Amino acid sequence: MSHWFNYEASLKILIFGLLLGSGLPALFALGVRAGAAGAGVEGSDGAAVAHKNPALTAISWALYSLALLAAVIGVLYVARDFIGLHTGMYILGAKPA
């Protein structure tokens, strides 16, 4: 470890950022793909080419909710000290001042 630069912490931040930076959009994209496959397809004459699949629709909603939950927890984690200071509820490891 350098006196001026913490390489270990920087590597952890890089890996975590890459995982969330590519993982959450990939999770959302999988939800879009599952929702599209679960919605079914109609031909040009209006007849169903592929039938609806409610299981894939449910999986897409679960993936959407998981991505939304991760985003909300991330925002709450960043604002945890502010929330604790103004509400008295110290969440996600915030420490009372």
* Termini gap: 30 Å
Order of helices and strands: HEEHH
Strand content: 5-15%
Roughly how much helix do the residues carry, as a percent range?
Answer: 55-70%
| Helical run tally | 3
- Taken from the alpha-carbon principal axes, the silhouette is elongated
Number of strands: 2
| Major β-sheet strand ordering | 1-2
Q: Which structural class best describes the helix and strand composition? A: mainly alpha
Main sheet characteristics: 2 strands, antiparallel
Radius of gyration: 21 Å
Low-confidence parts lasting 5 or more residues at pLDDT below 50?
none
Mean pLDDT: 86
Give a brief outline of the structure:
The protein has 97 residues and is mostly helical. Helices cover 68% and strands 5% of the residues.
Task: Provide a descriptive summary of the structure in words.
The structure is a single chain. This protein has 97 residues and is mainly alpha-helical. The protein has a domain at 27-38 and 48-97. Helix content is 68%, strand content 5%. The protein has 3 helices and 2 strands, in the order αββαα. The protein has helices at 7-39, 54-78, 80-87, and strands at residues 41-42, 48-50. The chain has a two-stranded antiparallel sheet. A hairpin with a 5-residue loop joins β1 (41-42) and β2. The longest helix has 33 residues, at 7-39. It is elongated and about 70 Å long. The two termini are 30 Å apart. The relative contact order is 0.10.
